Amino acid sequence: MLQGKKQLAVLIDPDKSDNKTLEEITARSAEGGVDYFFVGGSLLISNRMDECIKILKQAGNIPVVLFPGNTLQMSNKADAILFLSLISGRNAEMLIGRHVIAAPYLKLSNLEVIPTGYMLIESGRPTAVSYMSNSDPIPADKNDIAICTAMAGEMLGLKLIFMDAGSGALNAVSESMISQVKQSLSIPLLVGGGIRTPEKAAASADAGADLLIIGNATEHNPSLIAEMCSAIGK
Ligand SMILES: CC(C)=CCC/C(C)=C/CC/C(C)=C/CC/C(C)=C/COP(=O)(O)OP(=O)(O)O
Ligand SMILES: O=P(O)(O)OC[C@@H](O)CO
Ligand SMILES: [Mg+2]
Where on this chain does Mg(2+) bind (predicted)? Predict the structure, then answer.
């Protein structure tokens, strides 16, 4: 995952996209040069994960990476899984408990397991992730807390840091926080939540995000995928 150039992941929430929309997203992502599909949600209601992955795989060679909110969201049909530890929170279940439950399944699967420090950043309103994970986000203006949390994650051996303002965030992660966290890390930095325009995508990438995650914006308007890709130089 990630070799120095800016990358884009399109997040698919299996509850929200019907098959026709998914087919359009798949085709446009292949045209635009999307690097990954992320699949998941903090809560999934429908039982559409495997069906979604099957459609996404029609794009050819875009890897499908699970972005699970809980242990029910594991599927052997994907290529990899973000093994998320919610390091911004202090809920032991989200830091290590769910991982103990998931570990034997993952060991037997063919999934590439990617240890990821997941940091929820306050975004102007409560998010589904904060509520479902029973954890507080890092205040949006406390760059120092974000820097130290990310540094600790790297020192613990995590391979990626993912700063997320949460799906549909009012305010995306600030460029100043992205840039300061990036400067304190040598592992790749993923940024998502509330990135709605190509301009915001470009600014987040310029600030230091290595991989951007975009969900709602492209879900509502798949034709934005090409613009998002070219905004970050793809
Ligand atoms: C160890 C395993 C396999 C699972 C647990 C993984 C952990 C600790 C997750 C904690 C953080 C968390 C709940 C992440 C889910 C993030 C996610 C996919 C968010 C997407 O947004 P939604 O929450 O679906 O937003 P909407 O409410 O807008 O649909
Ligand atoms: O849906 P959006 O706001 O693009 O957020 C994507 C992702 O970062 C959510 O976890
Ligand atoms: Mg969702």
Answer: 13, 42
Band of the pLDDT at 3, cuts 50, 70, 90?
low
User: What ipTM is given for this predicted complex?
Assistant: 0.97
Residue 97 labelled as part of a binding site: no
Mean per-residue pLDDT over the chain, rounded: 96
* 3-class secondary structure, 36: strand
Cβ(27) – ligand 1 distance below 6 Å: no
Ligand 2 pocket list (CB less than 6 A) = 11, 164, 166-169, 192-195, 213-217
- The domain limits of the chain are 7-231
Q: Specify the fold of 7-231.
A: TIM Barrel (3.20.20)
Q: What is the pTM of this model?
A: 0.97
